[in-house]
């Protein structure tokens, strides 16, 4: 078949359509897991030596593949294998990050600008050191250490933590258990509202320390609670709980930056505003987001 330019919008839309079919179907909705895959593939970056990040898709190889922080992500890599089969010229690095970007939109979040052009590593020699991803059992100091290493600031840390508005924890994967919000397939600011408004007490159970609300249906991790107890972080939690628009804007900016950590300049989205969608496209996306949420299923 003729080679298609990576920045051809019709081609990108075709790939996004195939990603959508892979993520949301009768088997369930794996959008939250797609976000986690893209985040974990990108969040290994270190600005100190320019290693890690989404370029290379090194999670296909040990030791990154076996990192406990990535438990369960083989499920999402398998789901996206169908997209790779349909688009063999696309790198895994592009597919994983584009799926993570598009999953936010499918869930009703802001449009995430993404550029293709990443290449894949041929082996595990470029795998970053294990242990670079956040440890959910830690506190504010640990969060700053991990995110500052990637080049983020306090506002970015809180905004990116807002991805917990999607999905849930699984005891068999992370050791933790439960969702953060009542609608784990919907992107909104309810994570921040819950964090501020509900009373969180340590859950009495046989697992690691996590917190539960009075109804025993929602959970928060120690790193989540750190956003509320740290005065600087809390300022942003309050701002995002108050205004979903402010949250969406901060999340979009930080998440776009996250997805191209460790990548060359040609895959970094421009700062130019994205062209407005046509009314039909926008309505279609909203309709699809509502249908996707109605499909339910276990998000992650």
Automatic annotation (TrEMBL):
**Naturally occurring in which organism (per UniProt):** Isochrysis galbana (Marine planktonic alga)
* Pfam families named among the record's database cross-references: peroxidase
Under which name does UniProt file this protein?
Ascorbate peroxidase
* Gene Ontology process terms (BP): cellular response to oxidative stress; hydrogen peroxide catabolic process; response to reactive oxygen species
In terms of Gene3D superfamilies, this protein maps to: 1.10.520.10, Peroxidase, domain 2
Family, according to the entry, reads as follows:
Belongs to the peroxidase family.
Alphabetized PANTHER family for the sequence: CATALASE-PEROXIDASE (PTHR31356:SF66), THYLAKOID LUMENAL 29 KDA PROTEIN, CHLOROPLASTIC-RELATED (PTHR31356)
Instruction: Give residue ranges for domain Plant heme peroxidase family profile.
Output: 90-258
Signal peptide region:
none
Keywords annotated in UniProt: Heme, Iron, Metal-binding, Oxidoreductase, Peroxidase
For this UniProt entry, the molecular function terms from Gene Ontology, in alphabetical order, are: heme binding; metal ion binding; peroxidase activity
